[in-house]
Automatic annotation (TrEMBL):
The chain crosses the membrane at residues 287-309. Gene3D superfamilies: PPM-type phosphatase domain. The keyword Membrane applies. It comes from the Bacteria. This is Stp1/IreP family PP2C-type Ser/Thr phosphatase. It comes from Thermophilibacter provencensis. Residues 423-433 have a biased composition (Acidic residues). InterPro entries: PP2C, PPM-type-like_dom_sf, PPM-type_phosphatase-like_dom.
Length: 452
């Protein structure tokens, strides 16, 4: 299937040829201009009837993030009908995301709508149009395309055409028979090999590609690409600060070069491709995942530690007495890792010094029952020590009361041996015999002699 688009020959001359006055676009009758921006993209568009045609058959759609350009064919009051039906249908059927398959299906639905409209008497039989659509979602751009309208991407100052013309001259270029510059002035450049409006089985080219911050996307009808070369498009696009300025300057360049056809240009700048935010989210997600893993491990460790602590028992000091504790002596983050389970009347001071030192550090026991048994043993030990001390004290007291040097078998004192209180022995009351006087005197004399 081929469709011929009417073109009026124009003398081709570089837009920047010496002495050529640039044709301004501001204030031109019938011009259609629109622009806008959001946090991700900004855009500008201009459509002009040109310097030769009597009316504008081009249509464009700016329905963020969808952008469409359609170049009508079929003569007066027909091409513009076809192009307007096409952009309206694509706008209704386009997906909400950058899905090129669904976007291509929307273009194919537009083809059916144009055919149906012609059958129902809307427009003219044989009317048709091109359709070039892009849908930009962060760093992904879906493209669907039929005809010879084009999509360019200006990336780091270099212009790249990403669509393939469905035209006879493009086939000649592909075959190497003519160059791209020769195709712009070739007599058969108006023959379109695929378009909307005639073939119910028409299919759209569709694909996706990545775009990045700073990229500039240009959609245009052949009223631009047939007037100036790709290198000139690149030069104007690079030197224009905003999308609207770029659209205006490109239309002006096409008019300056002859304006032989309607010219429509839509320019979209990528401000934020979402990659930084995506990386930030990915990092946050990774950090959250790592944190979750760490928290999970910490919880498992805490559970194990809690289980271990709950299974430990020890004896320690509780206000000067021996206490039974559950857990491990110490604290974690200022929280004690033990609890008092049982008290006792065992005074720590009553225990040996070695045991007192051990209680200061905590004496580990194998369970509550074992701990209570140890406390009972302390009770018993203290009681035994007290009993032993009492026995020793009693023995010492008994020894003090009995003289240490008295013979165990000494006989009792007889009355004769007992001394009277005056220290003199008591004599029996017998009357002494009166001695003879002589004897008495003699004895006294003897006594005196002895005394001498």
């Amino acid at each position: 299937m081929t469709t011929e688009e009417t073109h009026i020959p124009a003398t081709q001359e570089p837009a920047n040829a010496p002495g050529r006055a640039e044709i301004p676009v501001e204030g031109r009758a019938g011009a259609d201009v629109a622009s806008g921006a959001n946090e991700f993209i900004s855009w500008g568009a201009r459509s002009d009837v040109g310097l030769v045609r009597g009316h504008n058959e081009d249509s464009f759609l700016l329905r963020t993030p969808l952008f469409v350009v359609s170049d009508g064919m079929g003569g007066h009051a027909a091409g513009e009908v076809a192009s307007s039906i096409a952009v309206e249908t694509i706008g209704e059927r386009a997906p909400g995301t950058a899905d090129d398959v669904l976007l291509g299906a929307a273009v194919e639905a537009a083809n059916a709508s144009v055919i149906k409209a012609a059958e129902e008497g809307v427009g003219k039989p044989g009317m048709g149009c091109t359709a070039t659509a892009v849908l930009i979602e962060k760093n992904k751009m879906a493209v669907a395309h039929v005809g010879d309208s084009r999509v360019y991407v200006l990336h780091h100052g270099t212009l790249v055409r990403i669509t393939h013309d469905h035209s006879y001259v493009e086939e000649l270029v592909d075959a190497g028979e003519i160059t791209a510059d020769e195709a712009r002035t070739h007599p058969s450049r108006s023959i379109i090999t695929r378009a909307l409006g005639s073939d119910p089985d028409m299919y759209a080219d569709h694909f996706s590609l990545e775009v990045n911050d700073g990229d500039r996307i240009i959609l245009c009808s052949d009223g631009l690409s047939s007037m100036i070369s790709d290198s000139e498009i690149e030069s104007v696009a690079v030197s224009s600060a905003t999308p609207q300025q770029a659209a205006d300057n490109l239309v002006s360049a096409a008019l300056t070069a002859g304006g032989a056809d309607n010219v429509t240009v839509v320019v979209v700048d990528v401000l934020d491709d979402g990659l930084v935010d995506e990386v930030r989210k990915r990092i946050a997600k990774s950090v959250a995942g790592i944190a979750a893993i760490i928290i999970g491990i910490a919880l498992v460790v805490a559970l194990i530690a809690f289980t271990f602590i709950r299974g430990e028992w020890f004896l320690g000091i509780n206000n000067g007495t021996v206490g039974l504790y559950r857990g491990v002596q110490g604290s974690f983050l200022g929280v004690p890792t033990y609890e008092l389970v049982g008290t006792s009347a065992v005074n720590v001071s009553d225990l040996p010094v070695a045991i007192q030192d051990q209680l200061e550090q905590g004496i580990r026991v194998n369970g509550e029952d074992a701990g209570r048994e140890v406390i009972n043993s302390y009770h018993q030990q203290i009681d035994e020590e007290k009993l032993r001390a009492a026995e020793i004290a009693e023995t010492a007291r008994s020894e003090t009361e009995t003289p240490a040097d008295a013979p165990e078998d000494a006989p009792a004192n007889t009355p004769q041996d007992a001394a009277p209180e005056g220290g003199q022995e008591e004599q029996p009351a017998e009357e002494p015999e009166a001695p003879a006087p002589e004897q008495t005197e003699q004895t006294g004399a003897e006594s005196q002699d002895g005394g001498e």
